[in-house]
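Two records follow; treat each independently.
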Amino acid sequence: MDSAKRHTRKIRVGTLELGGDAPIVVQSMCATRTIDIDATVSQAHQLSHAGAGIVRVAVDNEREIEALKEIRRQTKGINLSVDLQENYRIADKVAPYVDKIRYNPGHLHHIERAKPIPQKVKWLVDVARDHDIAIRIGVNCGSVAPSFLQKFAGDQLAALVESAVYHCELMDEFGFDRFAVSLKDSDPAKVISANLQFSRRRPEVPLHLGVTEAGLPPDGIIKSRIAFEKLLSQGIGDTIRVSLTLPNERKHEEVQVGHQIIRDVAAGRFISVPDFGSGLNIISCPSCSRVENERFVELAEQVKEITAYASRHRITIAVMGCRVNGPGETDDADLGLWCGPTTVNLKKKSHKIGTFRYEEVLPRLKLEVDKLIAEQQASG
């Protein structure tokens, strides 16, 4: 049973309904390389068997489109969603093989820069309508559209919410209502605030909840719980994704955790963590097919280990696994690492400190942590 009555409309995604009085759907995303068909098919089944109602894959180029065709053939009983990443123009090529497409409003400006955003969205809507599939408008804190960041300078939360509302208005204009929205941040408090604000503005729109880059267990689970408990208990949230940094063989744990949170909220079991987030905060993405070196997960674990001594200091360290989210989503962290195929870019806020080999970056990171601690102590 669900904790509170939800008032969103129902939309169909493949074989399931999402929204309204339909059960809350737990979903997850393949972390395998999409061009590795066997591994991706295996992980899709792994996630589905764990209880994922929707499984998402990322597709960005022609090779991955060809792989998706075969992945679809071998996963016919699974509801597939595709992440268009920065290349919205491939939507018509992937649409025949999926049940939902996810686009990020903050990435639409990358391609065909002279073309107006409404025209791009209209094309996506036409593709979805022609192929009888759903859409998710996925707005992320680290990649809000530049126009909204400029309009709401200094208020990233407002930019996040207003971007989502604007794209809903475009859907209205184009007569398409088979869509859901997500508003994600790595800070549970911001996820709560953004979704509360949005749900007041557009109470009928199904919501996909997630704390992006929640990180390694158990902290990543706690962050997700903080947001989901608050929102689900108020009837906000129709599908959830728990984003944990895990090796591929444990990826299904995201789904198991999601179902447990739903059960706990429905039973009134809440986990109170009043001091959580007051000290060291390590955020890391859950890994996906965009990750360019599988050592990223191991690196995130090592970062947690070598910085444990700084647990009482208010420092945020972000560890990102790819070039798509890495640069933007490390800008707000005190220290950020975004990982390439052979090297790691180390940043202090938006300033790049340098590029290091995987085996070199940890000692330099520790040095930078020590500097931050000394600065905090000097300032009282």
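The next record belongs to a different protein.
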Amino acid sequence: MIGALRNAFRLPDIRNKLLITGFILLIYQFAAHVPVVGVSREALAQLLNPATPGANFIQILNLLSGGAVANFSVLANGVYPYITASIIFQLLVPVIPRLQEIQREPGGQERIQRWTYIATVPMALFQSIAQIQLFNGLLLQTGGGEIIPGFGANLGLTLSVMISMTAGTMFALWLGELITEQGIGNGISLIIFSGIMARTPFNVASMINNAPDPGKLVWDLSVFLIILIAGVFVIIYIQEGVRRIPVQYGKRVRGRKQYGGSSTHIPMRINPVGMIPLIFSQAIIALPAVFASLVPIAAQGDFSRSIQQTFGNQQGFLYWASFFLLTFAFTFFYSDVMIQNQNLADNLQRQGGFIPGIRPGKRTEEYIARVSRRITLVGATFLGIIAILPGIVDFVNSVFFREAYVAGTTSNAALVLSGAGLIIVVGVVIDTLRQLEAQLVMRNYEGFMR
């Protein structure tokens, strides 16, 4: 990796791409410190206090936004409204025949991409409201004030906050597209990656400061290193693991020449969906707490308060079991959608290819779907365990450090770099290095030809 970077900086065009990428990521980090108008600093400090209910959830949001939530910046939504809109369209295309026709038309993918950008705006508006209401609900549990006093009552303030946070999302999205076009790597992924890496040193320092005694500190650091090293190894092993389905192409004779007859394979990944199920399930599992916080305080009963306590504070067996099942189920669902979108059976039949022992057409489609579901079982279980890793560490802490343990306030080594964050970091590094290597190979090839 170091050798590849050294070679990359020797080539002016690749060096410029790397410098442009770093400069744009630096701009994003500066923008992450521009606060939204009307934010109460006292309420924000109380919200970030480890003793506040839901502090673990806030820490995850802050990690994935690159510290924008800690400042309640205009970038507090990050690029997740775009990711949500993108997932929705990916799910709608196989269901709606008209969208399938548009996708197959020349320029159809660009049209769907443009609609995704348009759908990002209402998604960002909704996420802005939901995030503020959720934070207000968490603050009310401790008798605190509102994160933005007057939000909802003052029309001008409400519109200003919603428009600025939506504009921040679109600005982050534009920066990501600039990286994709002018820099190295996938811009949206690198935006998320930079946010995670920017907050990791602060989270390590927070974990050290929150340790109640030296024994707990040694334990937390040991658990963090084990999760980091083992997590990187397992993630690379799972993400790069493939099942190769053999494909044979028929022979065709034209005149004295013979075409085809070659053999290849279809690589079926164990985890073809990356971290998307984690992000989507995390967004869904936060909705009960959001809806419960919308109920007026006077009308809230034990049920509403228990929902906020469980899903807003990320505590209890019900929350972690729901999180695991959502991640597990959505991994299967999204994997099936991706396989259907690829139309592997039809493409093979048009190109004269077939899987040995399997009839072309419907039988091939059923065989690919069956193999995909079998290997996705491993990927879905892996993502489910990654999702509930903070809960597992929390349970272990409650057993071994019972006297110092308080639910929601004790330091949790799994939250320094969350499971989703670790998958994103490893995946983005691998993808960026591959693109960098491709650029180097292309330059070397051109130089050889000259």
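Discussion point: The chain has two domains: 1-208, 211-417. How would you locate this feature using only the token line?
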